[in-house]
Amino acid sequence: MTEDFVQTEAVQTLLDKASGISEDGGNDRLQTITRDLVEGIMKIIVRHDINESEFWQAIGFLQGGADEYGLIVPAVGLEHFMDLVMDARDAEAGKSGGTPRTIEGPLYVEGAPIVEGDANLTSDPDDTDTLYMTGQVTGPDGEPVKGALLHVWHANSKGFYSHFDPTGEQTPFNNRRRLKLGDDGRYQFHSKMPAGYACPPDGPTDQLMKMLGRHGNRPAHVHFFVEAPGYRTLTTQINFGDDPFAKDDFAFGTREGLLPMPNRQGDSAMIAFDFQLQRAAAPSETDFSARQRAHA
Ligand code: DHB
Ligand code: FE
């Protein structure tokens, strides 16, 4: 049996009906995408000779893994793929330059405190080194960006994020702040050093990684959104260049230009990192994606 089976009249009629494409009503774009998606799955079933038990195992995994889709998507490279797609679309549209984007990941929480000046991100005790970060947000011509809001979030020294911490030990918004920057676009904060992150042991993502012969580790990292009037909202992160997983991130979030080496001295580590934004070519570019995000 070959994939031509999917081209038979019976299967093609099934696809037309199942996707609603032959109906008057419904969303045209969704009908077309649904048809392509289901047809793609059908071809994979035939190409790999997937039997009924394997098919239901896969459906069971998807059901059981639903809570962790936000983790599975980066783990299988799809969130990074979206970055590659957006980069390529930008290149086609002649938009280039500035700090590279990279994955948001699933662990942002909306509504973090807005703070000004030299900010401390860490509310909870954490017996580890202190990270000091400084830099400036500029535009394409090196001009300081006015009115920027820098969202920062990272894990604690156990690799756990507040709001998602399985130990329940962290207070809301620990290691999460929104820094309101002045007209010079400069920022400065300190916090307790994050450790590398591992996907939850024995959860669906971890199980999948093990079955693929992979690990579920990320290097220590700090996430950012940078938003400012007239500029394109940037989603990015820095990963620590001296972390053992710096070149082996299971979520594919590490990128050239986003791997600074912390300057470690005694019990502190310094990172200087500047952000360069693109100018917004349309008002919609100052928006955030419509992704569903947690709120505390
Ligand atoms: C995942 C976790 C992260 O902290 C992150 O930044 C990206 C992905 C994950 O669990 O898949
Ligand atoms: Fe993260």
Detail the topology: elements first, then pairings.
Blueprint: H1 9-18, H2 28-47, H3 52-64, H4 69-75, H5 78-92, E1 109-110, E2 114-116, E3 119-120, E4 130-138, E5 149-154, E6 176-180, E7 186-192, E8 197-198, H6 204-211, E9 217-218, E10 221-227, E11 234-239, E12 263-265, E13 268-272, E14 275-276, E15 294-295
Parallel strand pairs: 1-15, 2-6, 3-7, 4-13, 4-14
Antiparallel strand pairs: 4-7, 5-6, 5-10, 8-9, 10-11, 12-13
The structure holds 3,4-dihydroxybenzoic acid and fe (iii) ion.
Explain how this protein is built.
A hairpin with a 2-residue loop joins strand 12 (263-265) and strand 13. 25% of the residues lie in helices and 21% in strands. The strands form four sheets. Strands 3, 4, 7, 12, 13 and 14 form a six-stranded mixed β-sheet that branches. The protein has a five-stranded mixed β-sheet with strand order 2-6-5-10-11, with no helix packed on it. A two-stranded parallel ribbon has the order 1-15. It contains six helices and 15 strands. The mean pLDDT is 97. It has helices spanning 9-18, 28-47, 52-64, 69-75, 78-92, 204-211, and strands at 109-110, 114-116, 119-120, 130-138, 149-154, 176-180, 186-192, 197-198, 217-218, 221-227, 234-239, 263-265, 268-272, 275-276, 294-295. The chain has 296 residues and is of the alpha/beta class. The termini are far apart. Helix 4 packs parallel to helix 6 (204-211). It has two domains: 3-92, no CATH class; 109-281 and 290-295, Sandwich (Protocatechuate 3,4-Dioxygenase, subunit A), CATH 2.60.130. The protein is globular and about 65 Å long. The longest helix is centred in the N-terminal third of the chain and has 20 residues, at 28-47. The protein binds 3,4-dihydroxybenzoic acid and fe (iii) ion. 3,4-dihydroxybenzoic acid (DHB) is lined by residues 71, 74-75, 103, 105-107, 197, 199, 218, 251, 253.
